[in-house]
Amino acid sequence: MNPWFIRWMILILVLANLALFYWLRTETRQIVETVPVGVKRLVLVEELSPPVVVNDGEVAEIAGSADVSDADIATVRTAVESGTAALVQLAQEFVEQALEIAESVLATESCWLAGPLDQTAVREAVTGALATQGIQLKLVLQRVAAAPDYWVYLPVDGGGQQQRLLAVELGEQGIDSYAITQGRLAGDLSLGLFRNEEHAHSLMSRVRAQGYVPEIYQRPRSREEAWAALREVELAALGWEAEAGALTAYPSVRLVPRTCPDG
What we know:
With 263 residues, the protein is an alpha+beta fold. It has six helices and twelve strands. The chain has three domains: 3-107; 114-144 and 224-258, no CATH class; 154-214, no CATH class. The strands form four sheets. A six-stranded antiparallel beta sheet has the order 7-8-6-9-5-12. Strands 1-4 form a two-stranded antiparallel ribbon. Strand 10 (242-243) and strand 11 form a beta hairpin. 11% of the residues are buried. Mean pLDDT is 76; it is low at 52-66.
C-alpha cells in the first residue's frame, strides 16, 4: 500500500474528528442555552407522551406547561457534557488506533530493485529520472550466472611426463596445447577456451579427425549486474508503471521486490 495514501487517510481522519468535536461542543451550548434559568417553558402537545388508554376506554390527554428548575438545567448540562466527553475520548482512541495501523504499514514498506542497468543509455535514463525527483541513485551490485566457457581439453593418463610427451606429439600435428597445472583438469592438456560453443565443437572435430579423443568442459562463469535500489515512496514519486515485472518506460529494466534495508 502506498505510504502517501496512508498519510492522507490519517490526516482526513484527524480533521473529521476535530470537526466532530467542534460540532458536539456547539450543539452542547445550543441545547443548554435553549432553556434559560428560571423561565417557564411551554410544552407542545406533540412533545407530550403518547395518549394513555384508561380502563373505561376513554383517552386521557396530558397538556399544560412545565416549570424547568435550575437543577434540571444543571442535570441536562452535565449529561450533555458527559456525553460529549465520552464521544471525544472515543474519537481520540480511534485516531490513535489509526496511527498505530499506519505505523505498522509504513514499517513493512516495500522496497524494489530496478535493473539490470548494464546498458549505458538505460542507466543514464534511469539516473536522470531519479534526479528530476531529487532521488540519488543507489546501486546494488549482484553477481549472476553467465554463459559458461567451453574448454576443449585432451585427457592425459600417466602424469607430468606423459603430458609433456603428448604436447610434443600434438605440436608435430600442428595442434597447439598447454599444460593444465591446477583445478579439476590438472594434468590434462588444454586445446582452447571458447565463449562460443560452435567454435569449441569445431576444434574438437578437427582434433578427433587426427586420431585423438578430446572433450569439452563447460566452465561456470558469473558476471556483475548493477541494480537501482528504490523504496516504494520513491517508486511512486517516479510514477513508473510495471507490466509483467518490467517497466513500461524501460522494457529491459525489471522490478524485483526485496527486503528494505535498515535506516
